[in-house]
UniProtKB/TrEMBL annotation, chain A:
GO molecular function, one term: ATP binding
Subcellular localization: Cell membrane
Name of the protein in its database record: Monosaccharide-transporting ATPase
Name of one Pfam family that matches: ABC_tran
Membrane topology: Peripheral membrane protein
Domain of life: Bacteria
From TrEMBL, chain B:
PANTHER family named in the record: FERRIC ENTEROBACTIN TRANSPORT SYSTEM PERMEASE PROTEIN, FERRIC ENTEROBACTIN TRANSPORT SYSTEM PERMEASE PROTEIN FEPG
GO molecular function list: transmembrane transporter activity
One Pfam family, short name: FecCD
Protein family: Belongs to the binding-protein-dependent transport system permease family. FecCD subfamily.
Classification lineage: Bacteria, Bacillati, Actinomycetota, Actinomycetes, Micrococcales
Compartment(s) of residence: Cell membrane
A GO BP entry: siderophore-iron import into cell
GO cellular component terms attached to this protein's record: plasma membrane
Entry protein name: Putative heme-iron transport system permease protein IsdF
Transmembrane segments: 17-37, 71-88, 100-118, 130-153, 160-182, 208-227, 295-312, 318-338
Organism, scientific name: Luteimicrobium xylanilyticum
InterPro entries registered for this protein in UniProt: ABC_BtuC-like, ABC_transptr_permease_BtuC
Length: 280, 346
């Protein structure tokens, strides 16, 4: 798969691709859904390690369900998911939580919880209840807050923060888990563009630390700018997968989203940018 | 460096909890000493101390035993209610969902009165001595009421308002049953009636203190074991699960402990209202903990109930402590409900 080198100063260079590496996540024949409703049907997907993969698709196509199934919040009815070569059911809950972190859409923290409390909570999978809090745990939680840019806010309650700060605090919790794979369900929802870009820049930095990131995004142009791979879902299956420039074109947008749009290379690094014209 | 400035910040957060806990302990010790050394019969301090070490006159011993029973009762019941409230508030993620607001203590009380009105039937039915009828009644009542509330409120999950509204209705119903049973029984003992209607620490049963103390101890240790999983659950079931704290056994265990504590507290002092609700919420504001934690709730509950009982006795007309907690707790409840409404709208 072709890598897209970046030239902007905003982004650090992409992690060196390891072509023969096993996928971080591998789904085969995945069928999943909720009471009486099948959302994913016989879906196959490989998520490349050390890359940013973004799941796209119209509302209700199963993006969140896919993410939740990959993170074992939803048990598939059929099919398998493998995390770094091991089937999910073989992993004990805490073991899974040390390898894979998932941030659900719009999580809510209890009253009075501070940014520091939240980051420390991420150490839970590494720490049985009888083992006291260690300096190492503290250092890792602090590092997580530093890399998400919320260390200065450590003693502030979450309900006093802006939406962008709060989202980065939640990501700090997932980083304190020290996961290999991070799943972010619509991390930019309810954020203005500047804060959304903050969060996505952070995602790029995480990739440079070797973390495999899978996100769900709604904004096609943002997804194109920040993803190594986009996965387009339609009716519970993978309709297309690949580098944004190869996947996002007017024909696909018309068929999958029912959208009449023009796709141009952006002036910064030539990735596709989507200009909607109207409903197809 | 951020890492260095963070250390003191992290410490300061914990220091606040330590300082607040010490302050609460100081309140407990101060009010406890006040309760032991002063009282209606006005024993001089030296005679109280003599009686405490077992060398006083039989009458002094009797008076002092009553005072220690009242003190221990207040501390144990307060701790039990505070921890019970923190447990249900944590698993439902609802600050108003506590065993007293949800009617569990009132239900326990109703069963206790029903059992003590007909002690012979209880004896015939369960083969238990008549004296234990009320205690068995509270435990059975607590469990049955909790089950009824959960069943009525469950609709593919627990909606916060639905749970609280069902709880309030069950609470009102249970208290009406208590009043009706007491009227029918034509109980001449006003103190007993008061205990089962509003809750009181007058004449705490000495024999109940040891078993109740053991129950509270075991339950608090269980809370310690559950603490991490409860902490994750306060972030919601999804996040708890992604942290490896799958909620499977945590919710039933926390519910069981909460119901046992609330029913036990009712057996000792009746359905004292709003301590289980208020103590964890006061605790999280005082200690700065991340949500309502059971141990902080227990400590705060003990201090609050002791303070309320001290105030109740110091009033010109001595009131049962349940009245005082209702009067003090109700505005706090209104404040929290009003604020949570604003939050949902905003």
């Amino acid at each position: 798969m072709a890598d897209h080198p970046r030239t902007t100063t905003l982004h650090e260079p992409a992690a060196a691709p390891t072509p023969a590496a096993a996928p971080a996540l591998r789904a085969r024949g995945l069928t999943a859904g909720y009471e009486g409703r099948i959302v994913l049907e016989k879906l196959d997907l490989d998520v490349e390690a050390g890359r940013i993969t973004t799941v796209l698709g119209p509302n209700g196509c199963g993006k969140s369900t896919l993410l939740r199934t990959l993170g074992r919040l939803v048990r598939p009815r059929e099919g398998t998911v493998e995390l770094l070569g091991r089937p999910l059911p073989a992993l004990r809950p805490r073991e899974l939580a040390r390898r894979l972190a998932l941030l659900p859409q719009s999580p809510v923290a209890p009253e009075g919880m501070t940014v520091g409390d939240l980051a420390e909570r991420g150490r839970q999978p590494h720490r049985p209840w009888y083992r006291p809090w260690s300096p190492e745990d503290a250092a890792i939680a602090t590092e997580a807050m530093t890399s998400t840019g919320v260390a200065d806010l450590a003693s502030r309650p979450l309900d006093e923060l802006s939406g962008g700060q709060r989202q980065r605090a939640w990501i700090a919790m997932t980083l304190a888990q020290q996961p290999d794979v991070l799943l972010l369900d619509e991390p930019t929802t309810h954020l203005d563009l500047a804060h959304a870009v903050d969060v996505l820049d952070l995602v790029v930095r995480l990739r440079s630390q070797g973390i495999t990131v899978v996100t769900v995004l709604h904004d096609l142009s943002l997804a194109a700018r920040y993803s190594d791979t986009v996965v387009v879902l339609q009716d519970g299956r993978v309709r297309a997968q690949g580098p944004p420039a190869d996947v996002l074109d007017a024909g696909l947008l018309r068929e999958v989203f029912g959208l009449d749009a023009r796709v141009y290379p952006d002036p910064v690094d030539g990735r596709p940018t989507v200009v909607p014209v109207g409903h197809a | 460096m951020t890492g260095l400035t963070l250390g003191p910040v992290g410490l300061r957060v914990r220091r606040r909890a330590v300082v607040a806990s010490l302050a609460l302990l100081l309140v407990v010790v101060g009010l406890g000493a006040l309760g032991l050394l002063t009282g209606p019969l006005g024993l001089p301090v030296d005679r109280v101390l003599d009686a405490l070490v077992g060398s006083g006159s039989p009458l002094d011993q009797l008076v002092v035993t009553q005072r220690t029973d009242r003190l221990l009762g207040a501390l144990l019941v307060g701790a039990a209610l505070g921890a019970a409230g923190a447990l249900t508030q944590s698993i439902t993620r609802n600050p108003v969902a506590s065993p007293d607001v949800l009617g569990v203590t009132a239900g326990a009380s109703a069963f206790a009165v029903a059992a003590s009105v007909r002690p012979d039937d209880v004896q015939a039915l369960l083969g238990l001595p008549a004296q234990s009828a009320a205690v068995v009644g509270t435990l059975v009542g607590g469990i049955v009421t909790a089950a009824v509330v959960l069943l009525l409120a469950h609709r593919g999950g627990f909606d916060g308002y639905r749970l609280v509204l069902v709880g309030l209705a069950v609470n009102a119903l249970a208290l009406a049953v208590v009043a009706w049973l007491l009227t029918r029984a034509e109980s001449e003992d006003a103190a007993v009636a008061t205990r089962w209607l509003v809750g009181s620490l007058d004449g705490v049963d000495h024999g109940l203190l040891l078993p109740f103390g053991l129950l509270v101890g075991v339950c608090l240790v269980t809370c310690l074991v559950l603490a991490d999983r409860l902490g994750a659950m306060r972030l919601g079931p999804d996040v708890a699960s992604t942290l490896g704290a799958t909620s499977g056994a945590t919710v039933p265990a926390a519910l069981a402990v909460s119901v046992l504590l609330a029913a036990g507290a009712t057996a000792v002092a009746g359905p004292i209202s709003l301590v289980a609700f208020a103590a964890p919420q006061v605790a999280l504001r005082l200690l700065g903990t991340a949500g309502p934690t059971p141990l902080a709730g227990a400590l705060t509950g003990a201090a609050l109930l002791l303070a309320a009982d001290t105030a109740a006795q110091a009033l010109p007309v001595a009131l049962p402590v349940g009245i005082v907690t209702s009067v003090l707790g109700a505005p706090f409840l209104l404040f929290l409900v009003a604020r949570s409404l604003r939050r949902t709208r905003g």
